[in-house]
Amino acid sequence: MCQPEATPDRRIDYDFWNAAGSIDFGMFFAARPFRRAKRDSVHWRIPPCLRRLPDTCSLPATEILVRDGTMVVVLGGAGFIGTAIRRELRRRRLGVWNLSRNVVDYTRPEILRDHLQAREVQCVINSAGFTGRPNVDACELAKTECLAGNAVLPGVVRGVCEELGIPWGHVSSGCIYTGAKADGTGFTEQDPPNFSFRQNNCSFYSGCKALGEEVLEGADRCWIWRLRIPFCHRDSSRNYISKLLRYRRLLDARNSLSQLDEFAAACVDCIERQVPFGTYHLTNPGSVTTREVVDLIRRTGLADREFDFFETEEEFLQLAAKTPRSNCVLDTDKAAAAGLKMTPIREALERAMCEWVWE
Question: What's the pLDDT tens digit per position in 27-75?
Fold first, then answer.
């Protein structure tokens, strides 16, 4: 069931446009010296120097350099999403360099520029961001970090990549939407966000992710990959299935989801197959409710206990959450038309549960 629009008493006023001590986002965006371009109209060619590694090559966990120096740079490669992307690049024997912020402060454009110029970089993937632990409620208490990682950093990466002429991909999120369209269909890539600071109805995390996309409006040679509630067969605190298994009470809501490894494969497909630049919803086709996922968990034998649900979203917000949640359905027709195929959601969920590996 689609989630209702936020009621007035649930609206959150972050007061960003006040004077002393707040951030003027109007000035923030006006100051960005970015050139506008039609994002979906640009194509690029993979140069001959990007080669696969030989099958006999050993594959270290953090860094692989193609013998001629060409590589794909991954920012945030140690995170849940970045690790999956690096794993997919290694699986295809492609050169990958995990640029760790613990070693290199890539949030500073001059430092990022120097490191990209020092190597023959084929593509940059920004999987870095601030999500909060254990969930987005933590972002309400770490607003500076959340803003920097999700709204400011994409602009930094854009500026450097456009200056150096390097194509790049940005891992974004479908959490900038809530609910579904009036006819029950999912939001398309062309639909404006309806869960952002501009609607004043969102979490701080979702608001920052929406701002991050505004910074990238008209970006040159850029993919924006929208992820939604990742899951896979490996037990993890970031895995949606693991969260359902461990939470005491659950909120029943309908959502689009992303199988983590298929999401990573689609991102790499964009690079290898020269998919037109632009925004893509990389979620598994279809949508599911929390109760439907729990039924699969019980049917596959992953857990046989009873699951307790909140009666309403209002009860959930009152007892278990500090900020509203995005529950939404996304349309995947554009990604499918571009050849970015993903398994139907129920099939992907059942396979993950049948192949489950406990932490």
Answer: 444 434 333 333 333 333 333 333 343 332 333 333 444 434 458 999 9
CB 67 within 8 A of CB 25: no
Cα separation of 12 and 157, whole Å? 30
Lookup: tokens for 97: 């360099």
Instruction: Count Cβ neighbours within 10 Å for each residue of 90-127 and write b for 16 or more, e otherwise.
Output: beebbbbbbbbeeeeebbeeeebbebbeeebbbbbbbb
Peptide linkage before 8 cis (omega within 30 of 0): no
Interior/surface letters 312-349, b for 16+ CB within 10 angstroms, e for the rest:
ebeebbeeebebbbbbbbbbbebbeebebebbebbebb
Domain 39-354: CATH architecture, name and number where available? 3-Layer(aba) Sandwich (3.40)
Spatial CA neighbour of 128 closest among 90, 184, 169? 169
Give the pLDDT of residue 105. Answer: 95
Q: What is the pLDDT of residue 2?
A: 38
DSSP string, 54-113: PTTS---SSEE--TTS-EEEEETTTSHHHHHHHHHHHHTT--EEEE-TTT--TTSHHHHH
Minimal CA–CA distance to 156: which of 203, 106, 100? 106
Amino acid letter, residue 180: A
pLDDT digit string, tens, across residues 147-203: 999 999 999 999 999 999 999 999 999 999 999 999 999 999 999 999 999 999 999
Rounded Cα distance, 50 and 47, in Å:
6
Write out the two tokens for 75. Answer: 């920012």
Q: Is 261 left (phi over 0), alpha (psi -120 to 50) or beta?
A: alpha
Between 33 and 215, the more confident residue is: 215
Question: Which tokens in the block code for residue 27?
Answer: 């000035």
- The span from the CA of 307 to the CA of 305, in Å, is 6
Residue 26 pLDDT > 80: no
